[in-house]
Structures are given as structure tokens and as C-alpha cells.
UniProtKB/TrEMBL annotation:
GO molecular function terms noted in the UniProt entry: pyridoxal phosphate binding; transaminase activity
UniProt entry keywords in alphabetical sequence: Aminotransferase, Pyridoxal phosphate, Transferase
Record-linked CDD domains: AAT_like
InterPro entries tied to this protein: Aminotransferase_I/II_large (IPR004839), PyrdxlP-dep_Trfase (IPR015424), PyrdxlP-dep_Trfase_major (IPR015421), PyrdxlP-dep_Trfase_small (IPR015422)
Residue ranges of every copy of the Aminotransferase class I/classII large domain listed in the record: 15-346
Protein name as annotated: Aminotransferase
Names of required cofactors: pyridoxal 5'-phosphate
């Protein structure tokens, strides 16, 4: 079972002898409201399109993304998930020195090691509630003469987010390429935190988004990147396969990016549930809870009466899955992360956490 990307529900359900739908997965950060009903209907209504090659230019899909992100359609490149774009961009830029804002998603370091890049890590610290001072970060980038900066915004697992103005400040005060992974950006205020509005004016900025988390579609493998750099655009297009987005993913994407009811409802409901979880977790004396701008929350068992791994094992018996964060460099065995599910499941998890921690002496 993977320790770096949340729970493998297939392995875990087989091990426990359960249907995977019986498990409440608080580890994978996927929208609990599911996916766009209009997008799914579009697939059903156009199922015979599987017999036709996709449009190699993906005009309709890119047009939907352009309107959704308020960006120039010429600046969009497509990938079969955000991970493909992360890999492609790092290989193309081929950095000699890079900065990772840590702790963070393990895939960045994996891809940087493939190009034999020297990796510098700027660690956000629990003493500062995992908040990052942008000026200190800029100084770190320049002192180490790094040519690539990798930021997950909001950051997984800490929940910290740079504002778009802070991202702009980094671009204006360093000479490095900046890759901003906005996988979780739609769970927060995009007007304040998203960097898509900066793409047209900064040729060294590459913004990546996926559809697995907010749009609840990890199964269709659709991601997109935004850059005004024509060399980067051409290199990515030449790097990935022709027709790399399958017909059904393209059809669903064309529709779901325009489904304002789904988008608005998801934003409203998940914000309320995140605030509920932050409030309830903070009421548990054993926990230190950190603010998050994502749809996940990082917590630490500050009394150390139980490890996150042991807590996870006990919760699995109750059919809840949380993320033990010990594998994130910079965190220890007492950190865990949960995401927002529907309200009833969130209530049940809180009750279970309180019960478990109360009985652990």
C-alpha cells in the first residue's frame, strides 16, 4: 500500500475484507460531493464518440479552461493529470539547482532527482505555524542561486498558501523559473491566491492544475498547465504523446469547467466543512491544529500519548482512513492529515478522534 499518495482503497478493502465503498477515506483530498453531473451526462450522451479520435488541438476543451481560468487560450497546455506536466516541465527546464518549499508532495523531489538536480529545501516550521515569510524565501532562493522554484499552493500537507501578490514578488525578485502547483487552489479564494492572472506577463512562470481533487475526477486523468513561454509550450507539446487526453476526458472537461452550479456549491459547502473541522479539531486538547487554505487539515498529537500511525490503525478498524504524515520530511510520527468529507462523516470522525484520544493514557 502506497505511503506517499494517501490510501490504496483497493488493497486496503481486500485486506480488511470490505467493499471499498464502506471505507471513509479522509486521506485522499477528493471532493466528497463527487463530480459534475453535467459533465457525467455529457459523457453518457456522447458515449459513441469513443469510436472517433479526439481533436488533436482540443479547441473546445481549451476554450472551456480559458474561460474558467480567465487566461489566454494560447497559453494552455494539456496533460494526462498534473503529474505528467510536473515531470515534463522539470525535464524540459533541466534545472541545476532547485528550491522545494518543504514539507511537501514527494513527487517533486522524485522528478528533480531524475535530472540530477541539486535540491535545496526551505522548511516551513511548526513554531511559525508553517507560515512562510516571502522575503526570507526570496533571500534563500537568491543566496543559493537556484534556477527553479517549486511551490505547491496551497501546500500539501501544511495548508499554507502564498497570495498571488507574493508569487509576483518572488518572480520580480529572482531569476528562477517558478513552477506553481495549484492542485488545491479551488478550495480557497482563487482571486487572492491563484497565480493564473500572472501567466501572461511572466515567461518564467508555469502554473499547473489538475482535476482530480476539486472536480472529483481522478479517473479521467486530466490536467493542464499555463505558460506564456513559447519555448516551454512547444517543448511540452513535443514531449507528450499525440492525443494524450482521451475522448471522454475531453468531453467531460469541456462541460464541467462551465458547470457554475457544481463549482459554486462545492466551494461553499467545502469551505463550511473545513471551518467545522478546524473548529472541532481545535477543541481537542491533545491536538495542535494548523490553519489550512486547502481542503485538508494538518494536526499534531502534542501530548504524544499515541502516534499518528497507531491512531490510523485504530481508525481503520472503524472504517475511517487518515493520512499518517511521518513520511513527509520535516514532520514526525505525531502528525496526521485529514480532508473534508460530507458533514455526517466529518461528525463521526471527530467523535471517534475524541473517544480514542480520551481513552489513550
Amino acid at each position: 500500500m502506497s505511503t506517499n499518495h494517501g490510501a490504496n482503497l483497493y488493497d486496503l478493502s481486500n485486506k480488511l475484507g470490505l467493499n471499498k465503498n464502506e471505507l471513509k477515506d479522509f486521506s485522499s483530498n477528493i471532493n466528497p460531493l463527487g463530480s459534475s453531473s453535467l459533465g457525467k451526462k455529457a459523457i453518457i450522451d456522447n458515449i459513441d464518440m469513443v469510436s472517433i479520435y479526439p481533436d488533436p488541438n482540443y479547441y473546445n476543451l481549451k476554450n472551456s479552461i480559458s474561460e474558467y481560468c480567465n487566461c489566454n487560450i494560447k497559453n494552455i497546455v494539456l496533460g494526462s493529470g498534473a503529474t505528467e506536466l510536473i515531470s515534463s516541465f522539470i525535464e524540459i527546464v533541466n534545472p541545476k539547482k532547485s528550491v522545494l518549499l518543504s514539507p511537501s508532495y514527494s513527487e517533486y523531489e522524485k522528478e528533480l532527482k531524475k535530472v540530477k538536480c541539486d535540491i535545496y529545501k526551505f522548511f516551513s516550521k511548526k513554531e511559525k505555524k508553517f507560515k512562510v515569510d516571502v522575503d526570507e524565501f526570496i533571500d534563500y532562493i537568491n543566496i543559493n542561486k537556484c534556477d527553479l522554484v517549486v511551490i505547491c499552493n496551497p501546500n500539501n500537507p501544511t495548508g499554507f498558501a502564498f497570495s498571488k501578490n507574493e508569487i509576483k514578488k518572488i518572480l520580480e525578485n529572482t531569476s528562477a523559473f517558478l513552477m506553481v502547483d495549484e492542485t488545491y487552489i479551488e478550495f480557497t479564494d482563487t482571486q487572492t491566491y491563484s497565480s493564473t492572472h500572472l501567466v501572461d506577463n511572466f515567461s518564467k512562470l508555469f502554473v499547473i492544475r489538475g482535476t482530480s481533487k476539486f472536480f472529483g475526477t481522478p479517473g479521467i486523468r486530466l490536467g493542464y498547465g499555463l505558460t506564456c513561454n513559447p519555448q516551454i509550450q512547444d517543448s511540452i507539446i513535443n514531449h507528450i504523446d499525440l492525443w494524450n487526453i482521451n475522448t471522454l476526458a475531453s468531453i467531460m472537461g469541456e462541460v464541467m469547467f462551465t458547470d457554475s452550479d457544481f463549482i459554486d456549491t462545492s466551494s461553499s459547502v467545502l469551505k463550511c466543512e473545513r471551518e467545522f473541522l478546524l473548529r472541532e479539531l481545535s477543541s481537542i486538547e491533545d491536538l495542535e491544529v494548523y490553519h489550512s487554505d486547502g481542503n485538508f487539515i494538518l494536526s499534531q498529537i502534542k501530548t504524544k500519548k499515541i502516534t499518528a500511525s497507531k491512531l490510523r490503525e485504530i481508525l481503520i478498524e472503524k472504517k475511517f482512513i487518515i493520512r499518517d504524515c511521518n513520511s513527509f520530511e520535516g514532520l514526525d510520527e505525531y502528525f496526521f492529515r485529514i480532508c473534508t468529507l460530507n458533514h455526517d462523516d466529518n461528525v463521526l470522525l471527530i467523535e471517534s478522534l475524541k473517544d480514542i484520544l480520551k481513552n489513550e493514557e
